[in-house]
Design brief:
Structural class: alpha+beta
Strand content: 25-35%
Strand order of the largest sheet: 2-1-7-8-11-6-3
Radius of gyration: 19 Å
Mean pLDDT: 81
Distance between the termini: 48 Å
Shape: elongated
Largest sheet: 7 strands, antiparallel
Number of strands: 13
Number of helices: 3
Helix content: 10-25%
């Protein structure tokens, strides 16, 4: 039986992390979950436009990498990767677990998820998979690595409609 890492210790770490992310860092991103049922596909199960669910505001820690530019056939292409770290409790409470292909909007840019990593545990024990039972450990975070994608590809913002004001295709929460 481990001396540290019990549910009482995990509760302390959980409350400290929540206060740090929600009150001190206070960075929120818009999370768009891919809606596979509403996305139409062709006979080969391919699609030209994806459909996403309504945006959800989630507290996060964001790390942006440096932008790089490359010359393409139709002009300059901006490439940027970002890392988004979420508290697992925030994702479980809202039933918004990220998957590859989902979209995160941050600083008026859209990032498509490339990988979802969940391997940070308090006391080195995840209560869902540890052989010693569920009395010790705590799964801390979910880390998502994403690349910047064009607004016209994600079909969330209407980009070709005549005036320069972007219009969101999906409905946003009332407080946005």
């Amino acid at each position: 039986m481990a001396l540290f890492g019990g549910q009482r210790d995990a509760s302390l770490i959980r409350s400290l992390n929540k206060e740090l992310i929600h009150r001190l860092i206070d960075t929120e991103v818009l999370f768009y979950k891919l809606n596979l049922l509403a996305t139409s596909t062709n006979i080969y199960d391919e699609t030209t436009s994806k459909t996403y669910q309504s945006a959800v505001l989630i507290p996060s820690m964001v790390t942006l990498d440096d932008s790089t530019w490359s010359a393409e056939d139709f002009g300059m292409e901006v490439n940027q990767t970002a890392t988004f770290a979420f508290l697992k409790d925030d994702l479980v409470e809202g039933d918004n677990y990220p998957e590859i292909g989902d979209i995160i909007e941050y600083s008026s840019r859209f990032f498509e998820l490339d990988s979802v990593i969940e391997n940070q545990s308090f006391a080195g024990k995840d209560p869902d998979s540890w052989f010693g039972g569920s009395e010790h450990g705590y799964s801390l975070s979910v880390i998502c690595v994403a690349h910047q994608t064009r607004q016209s590809k994600v079909n969330i913002v209407k980009t070709r409609f005549g005036n320069s004001t972007p219009i969101k295709n999906s409905t946003l929460p009332n407080n946005l």
